């Protein structure tokens, strides 16, 4: 089984390898295919973006590709940043800039609920166009200011339900056990072998 992860995000690759217990040089990432074109993530949903990335990478590389689209959905911001999570403060924005914009917008709405959830959709695609989806969600709320330096993205301002610290204050293993991507990857791990059987299509 040869698999390429459709990302150049090293932290995301580390997380995927850690959760799936894969060696450092397995699977491939987009760094192994420098000629692979960038995929414009213009879908309206996480699933649309994940499918678009996975199918484009599978067709370019000739390998089965795994792509994810994930983000933070904040009730008090009418579901934002959602599919724009990685570029909420603009194209090329840093994690800190995205976090700052989100906190500023919530501060301007003091009565808005701070409940939120991380959502992840994984899309597994082969060069023939078959796809399978695996999803994960974790509920929580947004803090008033960043706390912690672990993880990435919005981890410093998200406290999952049932806990009193942000993802960025948790050891990686604790976060992996409950995170949106961890849950989606767990579903993938349970079912990935079936995808490689002839004429199978999975939705999880």
Care to describe what's here?
31% of the residues lie in helices and 21% in strands. It is of the alpha/beta class and 204 residues long. Strands 2-1-3-4-5-6 form a six-stranded mixed sheet. α1 (10-20) links the parallel β1 (3-5) and β2 (28-29). α4 packs across α5 (180-195). It has one domain: Maf protein (Alpha-Beta Complex), CATH 3.90.950. It has helices at 10-20, 46-61, 95-107, 172-178, 180-195; strands at residues 3-5, 28-29, 64-74, 115-125, 131-142, 158-160.
Q: How many extended strands?
A: 6
Low-confidence runs: none
Could you give the distance between the termini? 20 Å
The CATH class designation is: Alpha Beta
CATH topology: Maf protein
Shape-level CATH architecture = Alpha-Beta Complex
Biggest sheet details: 6 strands, mixed
Shape: globular
Q: Tell me what portion of residues adopts beta-strand conformation.
A: 15-25%
What number of structural domains do the residues give? 1
Rg over CA atoms = 17 Å
Mean pLDDT over the residues: 91
- Based on secondary structure, the structural category is alpha/beta
Q: DSSP helix count?
A: 5
Spatial arrangement of strands, main beta sheet: 2-1-3-4-5-6
SSE topology string: EHEHEHEEEHH
Helical fraction equals 25-40%
């Amino acid at each position: 089984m040869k698999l390429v992860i459709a990302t150049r995000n090293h932290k995301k690759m580390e997380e995927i390898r850690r959760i799936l217990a894969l060696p450092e040089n397995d699977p491939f990432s987009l760094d192994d295919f420098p000629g692979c074109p960038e995929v414009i993530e213009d879908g309206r949903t996480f699933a649309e973006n994940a499918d678009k990335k996975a199918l484009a990478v599978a067709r370019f590389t000739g390998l089965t590709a795994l792509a994810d689209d994930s983000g933070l959905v904040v009730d008090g911001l009418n579901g934002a940043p959602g599919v724009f999570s990685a570029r909420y403060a603009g194209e090329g924005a840093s994690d800190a800039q995205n976090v700052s914009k989100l906190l500023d917008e919530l501060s301007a709405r003091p009565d808005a609920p701070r409940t939120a959830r991380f959502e992840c959709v994984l899309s597994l695609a082969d060069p023939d166009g078959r796809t399978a989806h695996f999803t994960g969600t974790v509920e929580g709320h947004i803090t008033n200011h960043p706390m912690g330096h672990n993880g990435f993205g919005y981890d410093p301002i998200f406290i999952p339900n049932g806990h009193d610290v942000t993802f960025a204050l948790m050891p990686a293993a604790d976060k992996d056990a409950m995170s949106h991507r961890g849950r989606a990857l767990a579903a993938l791990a349970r079912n990935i072998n079936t995808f490689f059987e002839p004429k199978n299509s999975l939705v999880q």
